[in-house]
Write a structure and sequence with these properties.
single chain, mainly beta, Immunoglobulin-like, 1 helix, about 10% helix, globular
């Protein structure tokens, strides 16, 4: 291997590690989501930084059959950087099908079949928040 090849390999390895000062330490964040005491399955838990200047990556977790989730970055790294986050929820499955023929009989628009109340579905309306510390957090969410 010639000197140029060694230099290119070294440069690639350094670039893959990230530039100095940009490396963000992340801490584990886990929890569960329940509604009326029952676990919610296939719900995306999304963390959005409360700091508008934050460089925090997109953070989310998906609940399993027991309603448990683990936050990860969009690149798959488990955890979240320390900071304050708004928390909101999104269903990953489409709501149950609706028979639109009955809506034409003066019944108005179809009722929402979402398991998640609307106020938990947006960063602008959610009241949920979490403070992730350098050691991590457990954040259980109970909705009605």
């Amino acid at each position: 291997m010639n000197a140029r090849s060694v230099f290119l390999v070294a440069l690639t390895l350094i670039a893959g590690c990230g530039a100095p000062g940009i490396d963000v330490k992340i801490a584990p964040v886990t929890g569960s989501v329940t509604k009326d005491g029952k676990p919610l399955t296939d719900v995306k838990v999304i963390f959005e930084s409360k700091d508008p200047a934050s460089k925090a990556p997109m953070l989310f977790g998906l609940t399993n059959a027991e309603g448990k989730y683990e936050i990860q970055t969009s690149s798959g790294e488990k955890g979240a950087p320390a900071g304050l986050y708004k928390v909101y929820l999104a269903e990953t499955k489409a709501p149950a099908e609706f028979d639109y023929s009955s809506a034409n009989k003066g019944g108005g628009p179809p009722k929402s079949t979402s398991l998640i109340p609307a106020n938990y579905q947006s960063p602008s309306t959610t009241e949920l928040s979490v403070d992730v510390t350098a050691t991590g957090a457990t954040y259980d969410i109970s909705i009605k």
